[in-house]
Write a structure and sequence with these properties.
Blueprint lengths: L1 H25 L10 H17 L5 H13 L3 H30 L6 H19 L4 H11 L4 H23 L1 H26 L3 H9 L6 H6 L4 H28 L4 H7 L16 H12 L5 H9 L4 E6 L6 E8 L2 E9 L3 H13 L11 E5 L2 E7 L4 E3 H5 L4 H21 L1 E4 L2 H22 L1 H4 L3 E4 L2 E4 H8 L12 E3 L10 E4 L6 E3 L11 H13 L2 H6 L3 E4 L2 E4 L5 H18 L1 H25 L1 H24 L1
Parallel strand pairs: 8-14
Antiparallel strand pairs: 1-2, 2-3, 3-5, 4-5, 6-11, 7-10, 8-9, 11-12, 13-14
Helix pairs in contact: 1-8, 1-11, 2-3, 2-11, 3-4, 4-5, 4-7, 5-7, 7-13, 8-9, 18-24, 21-23, 21-24, 23-24, 24-25
Length: about 625
Amino acid sequence: MVAVLYFLVAVFCLILGHSIRVKRWNSVLPGRDDTARSIQFMSLSLGYVVNFFVPLRLGEIVRAGVFSYLGRQSFALSFASVFFERVFDLLVWGAILIWFNSAANVEFNLTESLLVVIGVFLFFTLCSLIGTNKGIKKTLNSITAIFNDEISYSLRHFFWCLNEVYTCFRRNLISYIVNSALMWAAYLLSYNLIARCTGASASMLIYSLFDSPFSSTFRALQNTYSAQAFTVMIMFFLSPVLFIFAYYFIKNRYSFEPGKVLRWFEFNNDTVPNKRDLFSTEEQYKMFLIRNFRNDVDLISEFYKKGMGNDVILYRIFHGGSDALTALISCNNNMYVRKFASQLGSNKLQAQKKWLCEYSNELVLANVASDKKLEHGYIYDMPYSHTSIDFYEFIHSSSFETSWGYLVEVLNSIKSFHARKSSGLAEDLMIETYISTKMVDNFNTIKTLSSIFFDNTQVVINGRHIDLDAISSWINDPARNADFNFRETSVIHGDLTIENIIIDKKHDNGWFIIDPNIGNFFESPLLDYAKLMQSLHLGYESLNRSINCHVENDEITVSIFRSSQYAAIYEKYTQWIIDNFGQDYLKEVLLHEIIHYTRLVPYKFRKDKATGNAFTACMLLLINEYMELENIS
């Protein structure tokens, strides 16, 4: 009877130890873990049984696999959390061995146990540095790059998960240590009780469980104890699995769930999200890992670190060409278009948000839902409508008449806005400074960046012979300010490209405008019209998506994929400008378009030299076309 009581209490303590272990496990799992605790208990119990029957602790892989499959978690995260747990336990076990053996035998050789402890501490150090240390990330990236793409991704994912698990461990350190102590107390009591029940040696049992990885506990006990004692031990080790199956039976048969017990298991790690859950697609997450382990330093990498936050899911990063990034996100079950700038562009982005709010009653502009200053950056969010589409996509999916109808509405609205906000004429000094800083200085910078063009006096681009000396003389002509006759200034949008017009049929006006560019030196209404010209003339939005520059036999070919829809709207647009302002006004709009390109190209070179060369070719074609127009007139 006493033996039966020992057995039952031993089983209770073993199940209690498993339960505490599940709670401890939760404290190193990043993110909100909504997985049923019974799945964690089952995976732990099955792994425990496999470890009993099979050597090399293969049960831990089974545990991670079962939890991954039934709990719908990534295997990398499951295995990283299990691996981390076992390494921590190895540290504890190594420390205990050092203390126990050195206390019992002063001549005990500490080398093996010390190596275990030192190895575990080095492992913890590695986990802590994976997310921040450039040298560690570079080394891990070199290791993962040896393999094919799928294996490389899996390894990067595992390494990143180790860092997340370590971060959870560090933040929940007290809870983790307390639960570890309680878990070990329950296990040790359980093993001592089953030893008393069977007459086995408790120390031998514990040793077979924790200090003999190359032989199974099953084999060690089978060769040592009687068949009766051995059978009792098998029932003991199987009891957690039998318990969880009994729980599932009662739950499914009688819909019984112990609420208080389940609440005890709850552990919310929202402050340490699972990074994979913050990306809507696996491809987005793969790109994050690649950029992170390559130590890329750019606006997208800054957005990953500062602009997403723990409550944001990233769906898409949009094309852009400024110091700010635009992304489609969800936050608190709402969809937003988020604008983000690091320290370099935060002041400009704050001014942009202020402009949108200030003129929301004057123009049809995007609403700003919220904004936030970051330590070295700034974000603001605009509500996203599932029925909205940028004008570039709309033009290429709708009839010409419908697209032109919307553009005329935008143009008339902008024209009226300029008239209401007129602020007088620009002085000669402003025009001269505008030309010298925005056109001349930028052009001379481009000459130093693009040797494939400016190492020659002439170049052939897309079959057109371009006289570079003549263009350089034209740009640097001190009398160039005489070409600027329309000097009225006003409040302007400053970046009125096709993509900054959003079509939304559910909106009151059917459209709205986003992303103003604040701080233009010369606030001329022609800058807005020139931005639309920049879009339509060479198909800027298509250039941004796919552009390349190819040199062969001293001839340069740049890919310009302006669609037939753009070409048709371009013709209508130029006629609209002539009808509303006159031929000379159109010519000056084209001059401002050239300045937009001279401002744009150096930025393209900062992004990528090949792209910078391609846009240089476009700029030269536009200048050559303007000079021919000037000669004709």
